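SAMPLE LOG
Freezer: B-3
Tube label: C17
Construct: single chain, 324 aa
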Amino acid sequence: MAYSNNPNLPRARALGLKLLIEQRLPAQVVANKCGVHRSTVYRWKLKWQEVNQNVQLGNFNRPNRTPGNRLSVFRAAALKWLIPTLSSRPKHSPSAIPEPVVELVIALRQLLKRCAEVIWFHLARDNGVSISLSSVRRILKRHHYIDGRKKRVRPDNPLRPVVTKPGELVQTDTVHYVDPSTRRRRYVYTVIDLYTRMTYAEIHSQIRPGIAAAAILKAEELFGFKISMVQADNGPEFSRYFEDKLRRQGINTRHSRLHRPNDNAHIERYNRTIQEECLGRYLDDRIPDRQIQAKLNRYLEFYNYKRVHLGLQLKTPSEMLQSS
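STRUCTURE (predicted):
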């Protein structure tokens, strides 16, 4: 019997067996109707007999009564017709991990409560067990100690609202700058309102949830309207502390899907605009933050009040705000 993931195959086999057993059609006719070989129908019948081996089709209390050409309705009601597809899982593998090693992995997991990497390290150092890290992960996943791949959407993520007014949905992100010579990192926190395209940006030398939340509140003050929801990616600066600090100010938060930058398309495009029209791709380490922030403030004045947008029918963000 061929292996398949088709959920309708057991029902298809049942229909074929009913033609063969209940209606007494020849095996070749059933095979033609089902689109399989005659030997396949024969194997279905053997499997059907195995499934129904405990079903009594004859009435032994009345030996004078012999069953006719068709099964009685009463006897046929106890029959099982669905023939499940056999599992493709091999019964034994010569390279399978020994059961004592599997039990040791599970015991270390229950004792240490740590990830697969830590368990693999203790197996090799303390127990002298030579096993790959991927094998440890498979064992833990098979026994439901790890969930495998991280979900793309958080279960508590609120729905994305349909933007109809200013502040209904604001996107935020962080642009990472690294000086090529000194490797010093600096971060530009950016904010954009999806309805009016009003923007805000500020530079810092650290990446922290508190700074990201403060940038949102500063943008709300400069925009002049209340922000209802903020959408961010899954970076470390947009963690639970970021959410709690905004929630205390009456601002809800949601996150984009993992590895889906198009969910934050507006802020990603704004980040590119800042790099192309204001700061460039690199920041010189010798330039202080206050000088870069002054440059950002001048560009924000131009962007929000003078730069027209094709997405706003050639209006500026301030004109879009006034008309709302």
